[in-house]
C-alpha cells in the first residue's frame, strides 16, 4: 500500500512538472514568435520541440541536410528548452565563426562534459572564459608550436616505419590484412607516445594501453548518445543508465591517466635525462604545482588535456585514413596518378618524407577531397 502510494505521488509530481514546463514553454514560444525571423520546420511539439525529427538510425547531419534543402541555408530547431540554429552556407558559417566568433564561442553544460570531461575542464567542452583562454594559449604557444612538433617528429617517423614493417610481414600471410585495424593501432601508437610515452603495439590485448584504448572508444560512443537532460533539464533523471555508463568509463580512463601522471612525476623527481619527452612533460613544465585555474588544480588540468587530445586525435584520424585508402582502391586511375607523381617528385630510391608533401600537389588534392567527402 505504501509502495503504491509513493508511486502515485511520484507520477503526480512528474505530471505536474510536465504541465508546468509546457506552460512556461508556451509563454516563451509566444514571446519568440514575434521576434523570430529564422525559418523552422513544421511539427513542433510541446516540451520536446523538434526532437522527433532527429530520431531514427539515419545520421543526424543527413537529416539536417534534408531540412536545409527545404528551408534554405539557415534554419532553427527547437530542442527541448533550447533553440538550435543550423547554418550550412559558407557566408553564414563565416559570419558565425569570424565576425561573431566571441558571441558563439562558448559551449553548453552537457552531461558528457560533467561526467567524462573532469567537470568541463577539457578544452573542447570548457565554457568560454578565462580558463578556456588560458588553456587555449597553452595549447597554441606550447603544445602545438613548431618547436614541440619538431621535438615529437621522430615519433611519427618511427611509428610509420613500424607500421610499414608490420604491414609487409602481414602481406606474406594467407589471411586478409585488416587495414582499418592497423590504421587504428598506428594512430593510437603515435598519439599515446606523444602524450605519455606509451604504445599499444599492433595488438597487445589486455595491456594497460589496450584498456585505455577500449575505454576511449566507448567514451566516443557515449559522447554521441542523446541525453534528454541536456535539452530538458527537468527530465534528466531519465538518463540515469547512460550516466552510470559515463561514470564507469570515466573511472577506467582516469585511473590509467592518473597512473601515467604519477609515473611522470616520479621520473621527473629522479631527473632522468635520457627518457623520451612527451606532451605531459610539457604541461608539467608549464603549470606550477600549486596552480589553480578557475577551480581546477594542476593535476586535473593535465589529465583533462591528455584525455581530450587522445580522445579527439585517435579514431578520427584512423577513420579518415581508411576512407582515403578505400576511395583510392575503388578508383585505380586516381591511385595510379598519385603513384606516378610520387615516382617523379620523390623517386623510387627512398620513402616519402613530410618535407616532400608540399611538392605533391595531386596527393594534397586527394587529401582535401577525402575530407570533403
TrEMBL record:
Residue intervals passing through the bilayer: 221-241
Biological processes, Gene Ontology terms: defense response to fungus; defense response to insect; response to bacterium; terpene biosynthetic process
Cofactor section: heme
Keywords carried by this UniProt record: Heme, Iron, Membrane, Metal-binding, Monooxygenase, Oxidoreductase, Signal, Transmembrane, Transmembrane helix
InterPro entries per the UniProt record, alphabetical: Cyt_P450, Cyt_P450_E_grp-I, Cyt_P450_sf, Plant_Cytochrome_P450_Monoox
Highest rank taxon of the organism: Eukaryota
Entry GO MF terms: (3E)-4,8-dimethyl-1,3,7-nonatriene synthase activity; 4,8,12-trimethyltrideca-1,3,7,11-tetraene synthase activity; heme binding; iron ion binding
Signal peptide segment: 1-20
PANTHER family: CYTOCHROME P450 82C3-RELATED, DIMETHYLNONATRIENE SYNTHASE
Family: Belongs to the cytochrome P450 family.
Listed name of the protein: Cytochrome p450
Lineage, uppermost ranks: Eukaryota, Viridiplantae, Streptophyta, Embryophyta, Tracheophyta
Amino acid at each position: 500500500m505504501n509502495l503504491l502510494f509513493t508511486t502515485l505521488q511520484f507520477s503526480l509530481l512528474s505530471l505536474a512538472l510536465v504541465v508546468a514546463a509546457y506552460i512556461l514553454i508556451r509563454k516563451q514560444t509566444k514571446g519568440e514568435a514575434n521576434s523570430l525571423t529564422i525559418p523552422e520546420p513544421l511539427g513542433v511539439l510541446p516540451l520536446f520541440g523538434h526532437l522527433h525529427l532527429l530520431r531514427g538510425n539515419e545520421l543526424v547531419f543527413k537529416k539536417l541536410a534534408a531540412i536545409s534543402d527545404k528551408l534554405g541555408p539557415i534554419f532553427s530547431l527547437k530542442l527541448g528548452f533550447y533553440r538550435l540554429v543550423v547554418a550550412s552556407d559558407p557566408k553564414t558559417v563565416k559570419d558565425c565563426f569570424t565576425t561573431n566568433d566571441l558571441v558563439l564561442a562558448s559551449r553548453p553544460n552537457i552531461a558528457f562534459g560533467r561526467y567524462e570531461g573532469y567537470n568541463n575542464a577539457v578544452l573542447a567542452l570548457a565554457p568560454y572564459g578565462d580558463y578556456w583562454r588560458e588553456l587555449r594559449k597553452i595549447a597554441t604557444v606550447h603544445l602545438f608550436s613548431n618547436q614541440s612538433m619538431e621535438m615529437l617528429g621522430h615519433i611519427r617517423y618511427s611509428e610509420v616505419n613500424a607500421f610499414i614493417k608490420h604491414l609487409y610481414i602481414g602481406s606474406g600471410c594467407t589471411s586478409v590484412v585488416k587495414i582499418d585495424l592497423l590504421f587504428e593501432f598506428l594512430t593510437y601508437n603515435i598519439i599515446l607516445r606523444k602524450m605519455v610515452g606509451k604504445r599499444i603495439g599492433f595488438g597487445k590485448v589486455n595491456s594497460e594501453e589496450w584498456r585505455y584504448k577500449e575505454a576511449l572508444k566507448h567514451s566516443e560512443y557515449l559522447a554521441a548518445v542523446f541525453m534528454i537532460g541536456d535539452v530538458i533539464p527537468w527530465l534528466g533523471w531519465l538518463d540515469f543508465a547512460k550516466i552510470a555508463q559515463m561514470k564507469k568509463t570515466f573511472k577506467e580512463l582516469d585511473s590509467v591517466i592518473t597512473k601515467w601522471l604519477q609515473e611522470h612525476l616520479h621520473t621527473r623527481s629522479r631527473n632522468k635525462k635520457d627518457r623520451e619527452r612527451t606532451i605531459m612533460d610539457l604541461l608539467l613544465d608549464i603549470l606550477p604545482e600549486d596552480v589553480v585555474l578557475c577551480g581546477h588544480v594542476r593535476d586535473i588540468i593535465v589529465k583533462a588535456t591528455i584525455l581530450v587530445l587522445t580522445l579527439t586525435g585517435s579514431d578520427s584520424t584512423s577513420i579518415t585514413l581508411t576512407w582515403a585508402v578505400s576511395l583510392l582502391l575503388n578508383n585505380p586511375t586516381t591511385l595510379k596518378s598519385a603513384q606516378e607523381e610520387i615516382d617523379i617528385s620523390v623517386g623510387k630510391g627512398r620513402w616519402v618524407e613530410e618535407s616532400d608533401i608540399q611538392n605533391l600537389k595531386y596527393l594534397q588534392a586527394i587529401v582535401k577531397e577525402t575530407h570533403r567527402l
